[in-house]
Write a structure and sequence with these properties.
By secondary structure, the chain is an alpha/beta fold. The chain has 15 helices and 9 strands. Strands 1, 2, 3, 4, 5 and 6 form a 6-stranded parallel beta sheet that branches. The chain has a 3-stranded parallel beta sheet with strand order 7-8-9. α11 packs antiparallel against α12.
Length: 406
């Protein structure tokens, strides 16, 4: 999807004009092309940062402080918006545990709405795929809302309507651990339901009734398989990788990639080192970071006079105990394999930013144009990039809404 419908030839001819402000080392013509696309990321964990006292999304922050998304960097990276996630850590699979999850999720929804209301000169809430382009044309960034982990509604699926009324348009049933709805891909205890529970199957049906886009990231293979069978609308994997490139249970096997595409769905390729390559454990680094956290607390909540000291201490740890990271070559390997197996109409990208994502060369949202340049070099066309950066995700969001009417 293009912002202004400018043909590629005109875009490239425009590269001779004065260069736009460069956030990354990309060619001027790449920057122009990228800026002309509607660029969205379907999974920002930024609301967790927004809940920290003193965090201001209007201000530029630093990756070293634990922040990868804010308004100045959205502008710099040519990012028009995304899905801001109501993430709820998985607690006990009990009524009390699910009640606590419900309360957490409601408060996180409040945080998102407070940001949109406070910064309404910068952001507008989006609830339909068709909202994105007009919001961009108005000069603002669009903010969709998603729910990562279905535990907040596990005691009472009528709460799905409540969250829908709060603007949630994408929901996933499960996260790192099994819950009352579904098996996780990564629960060390293994599956307990054999996929979706009976309640989880009702969750799928209710999402279809409401017009909510179903997200199967973090779900087990059996859950993804069953969701594809049961859902009357295409589904999305908002931040996942491919298992043929790196064998990890969070990643998707080719069989299910093909089935996802056959059902009209989309996989948004994740930029999370742990799901892209094997990295050795580093106990000394973990211990040093734990001591740093004990000393300073949350870096996003630090007083200004302590910020420089924290950053110097963190840089010293990174220099002494470097953490191996995946890089752009690893990310491209996942993208190219997914494009080959699922097809260009069924892929996209998510940095999983502010949620553990970020790799060498793709550290925060200012690096999106650099990925565009790699994609152009790999042979992707402007039409492909328009689908990849937002068109495919908006298509399945629209399909979920249209399925409601049927």
């Amino acid at each position: 999807m293009l912002k202004f419908g400018v043909p590629l030839a005109i875009l490239l001819a425009g590269a001779a004009a004065p260069a736009l402000a460069q956030s990354t080392a990309v060619k001027p013509e790449t920057k122009i092309l990228h800026e002309n696309l509607i660029v969205l990321d379907p999974h920002f964990d930024t609301p967790a940062n927004m809940a920290v006292k003193g965090f201001d999304i209007r201000q530029r922050h630093e990756v070293i402080d634990g922040s990868q998304v804010d308004y100045p960097r959205m502008v710099e990276g040519g990012v028009d918006g995304g899905f801001f996630a109501i993430f709820t850590p998985q607690g006990p699979n009990t009524k009390a545990g699910n009640d606590a999850a419900r309360d957490h999720a409601l408060m996180r929804a409040v945080v998102i709405h407070e940001m949109i209301a406070r910064d309404d000169d910068l952001f507008t809430l989006a609830t339909k795929a068709e909202d994105a382009a007009p919001i961009v044309q108005s000069g603002k960034r669009f903010a969709f809302i998603s729910m990562e982990n279905g535990a907040p509604v596990a005691n009472d699926l009528t709460l799905m309507q409540t969250f829908y009324d709060l603007g949630v348009r994408m929901m996933s049933p499960v996260h790192f651990a099994n819950n009352a709805l579904a098996d996780s891909a990564t629960d060390p205890k293994g599956p307990i339901h054999g996929g979706l529970s009976p309640l989880g199957k009702q969750f799928v049906a209710e999402a279809n009734r409401l017009g909510v886009l179903l997200d199967a990231s973090h779900a087990s293979d059996q859950v993804l398989d069953q969701m594809l069978d049961l859902s009357k609308a295409p589904i999305i994997l908002s931040h996942s990788g491919v298992r043929a490139v790196y064998d990890h249970p969070r990643n998707v096997p080719d069989r299910l990639l093909r089935k996802l595409a056959d059902k009209g769905g989309v996989i948004q390729i994740n930029a999370f080192t742990g799901y892209m390559k094997t990295t050795p454990d580093n106990p000394a680094r973990r211990a040093a970071l734990a001591e740093l956290n004990r000393t300073y607390g949350n870096p996003l909540a630090l007083a200004a006079d302590k910020r420089d000291a924290y950053r110097e201490a963190r840089k010293a740890i990174d220099a002494k105990y470097p953490a191996p990271q995946a890089n752009m070559d690893d990310l491209m390997a996942h993208i190219l394999h997914a494009a080959q197996v699922a097809g260009k109409d069924h892929i996209g990208i998510s940095g999983d930013f502010d949620g553990g994502g970020g790799i060498e060369g793709f550290a925060d949202i200012t690096d999106y144009p650099a990925l565009t340049e790699r994609l152009i070099a790999a042979g992707f066309t402007q039409e492909d990039l328009a689908k990849f950066w937002g068109g495919n995700a908006l298509r399945v969001l629209k399909a979920a809404d249209e399925a409601k009417a049927k």
